[in-house]
Amino acid sequence: MPMGSVSIKEVATRAGVSPGTVSNVLNRPEKVAESTRARVEEAIRDLGFVRHGSASSLRAGHSRTVGLSVIDIGNPFFTDVAAGVEEVASERGYAVILGNSSGDLLKEERNLLVFAEQRVRGVLITPAGANLAKLDQLRERGISVVLVDHPAERADQCSVAVNDITGGSLAVSHLLSGGAERIAYVTGPLTVRPCADRLIGAKRALAAAGRDPGETLEEISVSVMNARSGQQAAEKMIAGGRLPDAVFCANDLLALGMLRGLLQAGVRVPRDISLIGYDDIDFVSASAVSLSSIRQPTHRLGRVATELLLDECDNPGSHAHQQIMFQPELIIRESAP
Questions:
Q1: Model confidence, pTM
Q2: Residue partners of 66: CB distance under 8 A and separation at least 6
Q3: Are 313 and 88 within 8 A, CB to CB?
Q4: Rounded distance, CA 44 to CA 92, Å?
Q5: Is 116 or 126 the better-scoring residue by pLDDT?
């Protein structure tokens, strides 16, 4: 029998279940007992059943897809988040459409438009800016939205984030405990919420230690948060003459670039300058000088955000919006012992 010509009724007969149960396996697999689901999936494979996805999407008004918009898919932080998203989506019978905004608001808007055109069931997004009005437009279309790595500011929004104020405070408190008198904070645009919150935390740590942030903390802003920008920041800092005692970078890619720039100039880390990053991505422990960092539960962020999103999609009438905040962890290695 040719692929696609098999009906749901034939699958139901083969599996010994009702057509409604087959439909649930296809559309809401989590609602079907595991043994029944396995039997239906075996019948689907044996008969070569292929559902007409576009037709079912038109009838339902949405597809079995969710959209994921991130700021920089080249950053392992977002790769790990995306892996958590895909795991849960796959378990629930969904596919993921990925959009990479590169921190560009116009590109982010185009990604959201594509998601809407593809009739996604919901959207997971790490916003590139502070204006979230465009997300309300998605909700008006019946598309659920969950903020990822960005705390919600309203009770009618779901979000999953890490307490970046605490993270910034942990980093700077540790550098102060090591004797730092002057600290540089290398950051991306402060319109990106995590960057701004980490700065707030850094200043709180200084205030708690009786230090004047204006005298102790130097802010170095870059437009792109990657290793190249970190190295350029190091080169600019060295060219300026007076080096800080310590550097706190808003992510590990910046910190790895900073480390390369310092070492190439003969600056000893941590003897001359202590250095701490943020995210604790996989390979920082294997860098030339293993990097101290603030760890985030990236994979769990993706999983929990997707569970929230699909719960809202499947139970819009009873879903309770949640703002989940994880706590970061200081990981001490050679660069800032």
A1: 0.79
A2: 85, 89, 94, 95, 96, 97, 120, 121, 122, 123, 124, 306, 309, 310
A3: no
A4: 17
A5: 126
